[in-house]
Amino acid sequence: MVNAALDELSPAFTKIYSRIGRPSIAPEKQLRAILLQMFSTVRSERLLMEQLRYNMLFRWFVGLSIDEAVWDVTVFTKNRERFLDGEIAARFFESVLGQARANGLLSDEHFTVDGTLIEAWASHKSFKPIDDQQAPAGGGSNPTVDFKGTKRSNDTHRSTTDPDARLYRKSANTTAQLGYLGHALMENRNGLVVDGRLTLATGTAEREAALAMIEGICGTRRVILGADKGYDTADFVAELRARGVTPHVAQNTTNRRSAIDDRTTRHEGYDISQRKRKRVEEIFGWEKVVGGIRKVKVRGLGHVGALFTFALAAFNLVRMRKLIPVSA
C-alpha cells in the first residue's frame, strides 16, 4: 500500500529534488523510513539509523540492500525537511485514503470529529513576555526561572523556542501546556480518518476545524456528525444544520442548557453515534503511544502539521492492513 501511494507521488518528488549536485536520499526510501519510525515506535532518527544497520526487516521495508550503507543521521534529518515544508504529507494521506475508498472501506454518511492536544517541543521557561527577549539570569544551559504567581497568557507571552506554540489547558483537571491542537474526522464504518489538520491551540479551534473538515464531506446526501460535549454549543449546532449535517453531539447539561434537544436524542441512531464516536480516541491513542507524536520533535505550525498528517496516514495504513484481504 505504501508503494502504491509513493508511485502516485513520483511527479511531486521531481519538484523538490534538484537534478544537479551530489546524490541525495531517494524520496521513496526517506518516506518509508519516516513511516517505519512511526510503525515501530522508534523514538529518534539516530536510533532508527542504528537499527537499519542490523535489522533486516527494517532494511527490506525501506528498500536498502543487505550490504548498502546506512545514511548519516544528520543527512537523514536534513532531507526530512523537504517533506515537512511541502505538500507531500497531504498528498500521501490522500493517496492512502484513495486506496481505502477503492476498496469500499469508507462510509459516506456517518462521521465523528474530535481534537487532541499535541505537546510542543518547548518548555514553560521559554514562554516569556513578547516585549522581553532577554536571557534569564543565572546563565547555563538550563537557568532557573521563577514564574509562579505571574499571570501569563497567549495575548502577552510567546515561546522563544517555538513561537507558534500556545499555552492551552485541555480540561479543568489538567495542567496548561505549550502545544498545538490536532483534529481528525473519522468515518464510522471502519474507524478510518478521512480528514485531519493541525491548528493553533485556541478555545474555538476544535469547532472551527470541525466545520472546515465537514465542508468537504457535505453534498447532496445528508450526513451525520458525532462529537463529544466540547462541541455542544448553539452556534456550532446551528452551523451544522445550516450545512445539512445532523449534529449527533453529546449533551452537555452541566450548569447549562444543551443545544441538542429531544428532536435528536429520541432517535436510535443518536445512541449508535455516541457509541461509535468513542473510536476516534483510538486514532489519537495510536498516534501518541505508537506513532510517537505525543511530544513532537519539530517546531512550527507547518512542520508539526505535516508530521501529524503523516501519522494519520500511518494509522490508516495499519487499519487497512487488517481490513483489506491479502491476495494469495
Quick overview of this protein structure:
With 328 residues, the chain is of the alpha/beta class.
What are the main properties of this structure?
42% helix, Nucleotidyltransferase, domain 5, 15% strand, two-stranded antiparallel sheet, six-stranded mixed sheet, single chain, globular, alpha/beta, 328 residues
Overall description:
The chain is built from twelve helices and eight strands. The protein has 328 residues and is of the alpha/beta class. Among the domains are: 85 residues; 134 residues, Nucleotidyltransferase, domain 5 (2-Layer Sandwich), CATH 3.30.420. Helix 1 crosses helix 2 and helix 2 crosses helix 12.
| SSE ordering | HHHHHHEEEEEEHEHEHHHH
Strand residue content: 5-15%
Distance between termini?
16 Å
Main structural class = alpha/beta
Give the uncertain stretches in residue-range form.
none
CATH topology of the domain at 107-120 and 179-298: Nucleotidyltransferase, domain 5
Mean pLDDT: 89
Query: How does the overall form come out from the CA principal axes?
Result: globular
Q: What oligomeric state do these chains adopt?
A: single chain
Query: Approximately how much helix is present in the residues?
Result: 40-55%
- Major sheet size, sense and barrel closure: 6 strands, mixed
Query: At the first level of CATH, what is the class of the domain at 107-120 and 179-298?
Result: Alpha Beta
CATH architecture of the domain at 107-120 and 179-298: 2-Layer Sandwich
Number of E strands:
8
Number of helices: 12
Radius of gyration: 22 Å
